[in-house]
What we know:
4 helices; Nucleotidyltransferase, domain 5; 42% helix; alpha/beta
Amino acid sequence: MHLILHTDGGARGNPGPAGIGVVIKNAETGEIVEQHSEFIGHTTNNQAEYRAVILGLRRCVALGATEVEVVADSELLIKQAKGEYKVKNRELASRYVEMKNLETHIGRVRYRHVRREKNKEADALANAAMDKGMRRSVGD
């Protein structure tokens, strides 16, 4: 099964309240298979970007994907995933290893960078998660 995985992560304040968005589509039909929006607490934009891809890849493995195209608007994440940039941050390095380990359960994984405008669904889900999480923390 060939899936397209759109991901986004963000933090307001960087670091700050963070959320992730994941949209998994069937590559042949374009149909949405799953989508996820999750508040992940207080962290950085880059951590959120990686956590979105990790959640997405976990779901792709569970769905039985044999090929996945990861689409994200984080140039840093995409270039690190492709090996074009080194992962220098220690916390990101552990996320990178987790991501690469998930790849071994899928036949082929490719990474593609897009502009934010081309990643609207995942971006909206990440922002909704941040909004929800921020309302929750204000109400505590």
